[in-house]
Write a structure and sequence with these properties.
Elements (H helix, E strand, L loop, with lengths): L1 H26 L7 H14 L5 H12 L7 E9 L5 E9 L2 E8 L5 E8 L10 H8 L4 H12 L5 E10 L2 E10 L2 E8 L5 E8 L2
Antiparallel strand pairs: 1-2, 2-3, 3-4, 5-6, 6-7, 7-8
Length: 204
């Protein structure tokens, strides 16, 4: 009877090992006990980790650039999964003619990279019919002169300069003229005739 019990236990043990090996072979997944379950939980836990919002990522970038949101134009704010399985915010924005590029860790909020480029570039806008009409309705240089004279409160003047230029990415007329011993300088928006800047100096 004792011999039979030992033989029975051996057969049961062998059958158990055989079933485990067969199950591993059928699924193509090696059996490592609890280790396999732990690896699966690590991946799921990262996906479930709380991430910062797009607005929070924008505030981090603006704080680093020392700019206010009202002074910039955002052209890209995207949450991306990188090759290293890390979630990052890719943020691009303009302030004047300066382009800022940021990559921010979506979990910790850490700035992974920051870059800015100064370029003579107008902030891109989505094309539309109204935009096309605005371009065709640009004021003339003569109209810009009249706006400057009216603002200065004079009827005529000796013009020293009246030319097209760009100021912080905006197309303007640079106007300079003299009345007596006073020298006036104006920057006037080409698209709407608004006075961007003006100054007057006494010319000795």
């Amino acid at each position: 009877m004792k011999k039979f019990n030992k033989l029975g236990k051996s057969l049961i043990g062998a059958a158990t090992v055989t079933c485990m090996l067969f199950a591993a072979g059928m699924t193509g997944v090696p059996y490592y006990g609890s280790n396999f379950v732990a690896k699966s939980k690590v991946s799921k836990s990262y996906k479930a980790t709380k991430k910062i919002t797009a607005d929070e990522a924008k505030r981090i970038a603006l704080a680093h650039a020392k700019l206010a949101e009202k002074d910039v134009t955002f052209v890209k704010v995207e949450l991306e999964l990188e090759d290293n399985n890390r979630y990052e915010y890719d943020i691009d924005f303009y302030s004047g003619n300066v382009e800022y590029d940021y990559e921010i860790d979506a979990v910790s909020g850490a700035i992974l990279s920051a870059d800015k480029d100064i370029e003579n570039y107008v902030i891109p806008t989505h094309p539309s019919t109204s935009a096309a009409n605005t371009q065709t309705a640009e004021i003339s240089v003569e109209r810009a002169k009249q706006i400057a004279l009216s603002h200065a409160g004079v009827g005529s003047a000796r013009f020293k300069k009246a030319k097209l230029d760009y100021e912080n990415g905006i197309k303007v007329y640079e106007i300079e003229f003299k009345v007596g011993n006073l020298e006036y300088e104006y920057d006037i928006n080409v698209s709407n005739g608004a006075i961007i800047s003006s100054s007057v100096e006494v010319d000795d």
